[in-house]
Every structure is written in C-alpha cells, then in structure tokens.
Design goal:
By secondary structure, this protein is mainly beta. Helices cover 6% and strands 36% of the residues.
C-alpha cells in the first residue's frame, strides 16, 4: 500500500537533489558520492535524464530502443540487479520498471500517461562496465493535456532516474498521486497491480579501477556515460558477453551535460605485517609436505570508515610449487564455501590452513584450484576475522606440492576492510535497500618471503 506523504517531503527531497547542471533544462545530470579507491560495493550517486524531444516516436515491445549507461575509469557493477534471459542456465530476466515523471509546477490538466511498462532496466549484471535500459512505448503516449496527446519539448521534458534507493521515492510517489508520474517507485511488477519498491543503486566495484585517491580532477571521478542504440533484443537480453556499445550503430539521440556519480577520497588506512621465514627440507619424489609460517599483524584499520571485520587474502605465485589444502568429503567432493564467503563459486579449505584468534572458516575461489595426483589444492586462501586494533598473530599452513622446487617462496598477504559480521549472517548490512550490501576496500598488502625450500641432504 502506498501512503501519500506530506507535501513538505517533495520540497525537502528536491532540495537534496543538487545536480551538476542547475535547473530543469539539463539533459543529463547527477549527484556525486564519495567513494573509496579499491573499494567493493561502493555506492555511486543518482543519474537524472531529461528527455526534451519525442525521440522514441516508434518504440514498441517488438522494436524497442536501448539506452546504455557505462561507468568510466574501469569501474564495474558489483551486484546483479537484472540478470540475463537464459533459463537453461537458471538465469531469469526480471526487469525493473522505472518511473517517468514531469514537473509538478506545470498546469494540473497536464498528466504523465506513459504505460507503466514503458521504461525498464533490462540488463544489470555484476562485473560488467554498465547497464541497459529499454524503452518500448512511443513517446506520443507519455503526456496528455486535457486528455489529448501533448508533445515532449524543452519547456515540458520527461524525466527518469537511476541510482536511487527505496528511501528516495517520496518525490515520484507524490507526483504519482498528482498524475505527474506513471509509477510511484521502481518495481519489478506492473501487471495485475504494482509490486513492492526496488532499489536501483549504482553499486560499484572499484578494485581494478584507475582513479586517484583524492582530489576533484577528472582522474579522481567516476562518470556515467550514455549511448542510445536500436539493436535486436536478444543482443542485450541473451548474450552472455555484454554488447560493445562502441561497435553498435547509434540511435539519433544524445544527452548533454555531465554525470559524475563518484568522487574518490582517501580513507587513510594502515596495515603492517611481518613474518619470519622458515626453511623447508624437501626430498624430490616424496609426498607433498606441509609447513607453517606465522605473521605478526599490526593495527589493520581505516579512519573515517565503519569497520566490522577484515578479510585476509593470502596467495602464492603459480610457479612456486606451493598451495593450500582443499577440504573434500569421503567421496572426494568439495564443500560449497558460499555460506562463509558470501560469494558463489568458492570452496572450503582444510581446517588447519589458518590459525589465530577470531578467524572464521577459510575458503578459496574455484578458479584458483589445481590438482596433484588425486588431491586438490588452492593457490590462495581467504578468511574473515573480527575487527582488531592491536597486534596479533596469524599462522598459515601451506603444502609444498612440487618437491623438486627449490628457492624462496613469497606470499602475497592482502587485508580488506569489510562490514561482514563475525556471526556469518547472510545479509551483513541488514538493510540492502538503502546500502549497496557488504562493502569492501583494501587496507594494505605485504609481499614477503615466508619460506626457503632446500633439497634435503642425502
């Protein structure tokens, strides 16, 4: 049930919409939020589109137009909001329908009458560099004046937004009750009654982005860039590899203005780790043997950052001949690690891989596994810990899988700040509708020799 809110909520909400280009005449505008370089699930700002011409005069469900919004600087989407239409892979396309709205200061006899399925998010997949919107209803159905079609023009544009959470719908809800919006909020259901509100937040993975840590120049910002195409629907909805917008023919519509949704800042993280290398005596041709090294961790913290726990990631070089033991049951099957990793395609490692206080169960990504004989190992080991601000020990037990290897073995130890709960809850933040889910950003890393492998004397 939608509850009409007092009129002051519209005024308050409008006051918070500080767009990069002032006024209603802008084609493309945005809010900018502070984001952390190397962060995961960093939330970007809102993007507002102002359509000032009847560009989609022939859009239909069989002949739609697609709007592609890409992220700059190597940023990618950190969550899947709308998956592909691939039932054989258990992937289901459930679009998010977006409100279209007009200004509330135009005459009351002017209404937004666009069908509720006019505009939708139809592809928003984690790991991709942008998302796709679909327009499937002609623009001459969007506005009526005295119950007759009215034109879309610079003086009476139609607006829509992405990047909002469910708490940011008061504006469109009020406009909906005044017949100035075709939907009160984004939702996946418009047939047979409206479904619940859905967040459409710009949650970004910046771990591989190339942005500087502080400042307000171009290389410290994440931009949203817009292109419009008319392509077969299957190109967007069913192709596993995202379409290359640069290779597609452009639809004759452009958006002016600048959409900056992320502005980087330095969280001032600190991390220090030391390790005493051990010497391992290996006999060529013998069975793989385990060895343990101990790290001393000092104060892994980030200032100006909510910090509930840390994630530790240890990895060896591919040619080091060293790995971590993978847990398998009596039938040799892996144990799914999703319940402790909060990610798909992970497996549990052996119980003795990590040692120390306040650590959970170790896991590894499936693509890091390798096999020696009948036994499986991982090149990496990951684990979550409770937040600590003092000095403590972390032990790592690895396995020398190649007994012909000699020389130093370096380990890459990286620590990330997260908001995962130590209890292992499935929705660590609790409120996935106003936050981008569990965030993560790198505190620091240390690369150090942890062992020297020598051939045992005969």
């Amino acid at each position: 049930m939608i509850k009409r809110r007092p009129k002051f909520t519209v005024i308050a909400t409008a006051a918070l919409l500080l767009f990069t280009v002032a006024g209603w005449a802008s084609d493309l505008s945005s809010t900018a939020r502070d984001v952390s370089p190397d962060g995961f699930n960093e939330r970007g700002g809102r993007i507002r589109f102002a359509l000032k011409q009847p560009a989609f005069s022939d859009a239909t469900p069989d002949n739609p137009v697609f709007i592609y919004v890409s992220l700059s600087s190597g940023a990618t989407l950190s969550q899947t909001l709308v998956d592909l239409d691939l039932p054989d892979q258990n992937r289901q396309n459930q679009p998010i329908y977006l409100p279209l709205y007009i200004r509330d200061d135009i005459p009351e006899f002017v209404h937004c009458t666009a069908p509720q399925d006019t505009l939708a998010v139809v592809r928003w997949v984690a790991g991709e560099t942008g998302f796709w919107l679909r327009v499937q209803r002609a623009t001459d159905t969007w506005i009526e004046s005295w119950a007759s079609p009215a034109p879309i023009e610079a003086r009476s544009p139609v607006f829509f937004e992405v990047g909002t959470d469910v708490d940011q719908n008061s504006r469109t809800e009020d406009l909906y009750f005044e017949n100035k919006a075709n939907l009160p909020y984004p939702t996946r259901q418009v047939a047979d009654g409206l479904g619940p509100a859905v967040s459409v937040m710009s949650c970004m993975d910046l771990r591989h982005a190339w942005i500087e840590s502080t400042g307000y120049q171009a290389n410290q910002r994440i931009y949203a860039q817009v292109a419009v195409h008319r392509v077969p629907a299957d190109t967007v909805l069913r192709r596993e590899t995202a379409p290359d917008s640069a290779q597609l023919a452009n639809f004759p519509l452009g958006f002016t203005g600048e959409a900056i949704i992320g502005r980087s800042f330095d969280r001032l993280c600190s991390f220090h780790a030391t390790v005493e290398p051990t010497t391992v005596c290996a006999t060529p041709g013998s069975e793989p043997q385990a060895f343990t090294t101990s790290w001393v961790i000092t104060d892994p913290t980030c200032r100006f950052q909510y910090q509930r726990s840390d994630r530790y990631h240890a990895a060896f070089d591919v040619d080091s001949g060293v790995g971590f033991a993978v847990y398998t049951d009596d039938q040799g099957n892996f144990a799914d690690g999703a319940s402790v990793s909060y990610r798909r395609n992970t497996v549990l490692l052996a119980a003795d891989v990590f040692g120390g206080e306040l650590f959970l169960t170790a896991f590894a990504d499936r693509d890091q596994l390798f096999q020696v004989g009948e036994t499986w190992y991982a090149r990496e080991a990951q684990i979550y810990s409770g937040f600590r601000t003092d000095t403590y020990n972390l032990s790592l037990t690895a396995v020398l899988t190649d007994t012909t290897f000699t020389g130093p073995v370096a380990c890459h130890l990286t620590v990330f700040n997260t908001d995962y709960a130590l209890s292992g809850n499935q929705t660590p933040r609790g409120d996935q509708e106003t936050f981008c889910g569990p965030y993560e950003n790198k505190i620091g890393e240390q690369i150090a020799p942890v062992a020297t492998i020598e051939i045992c004397p005969q």
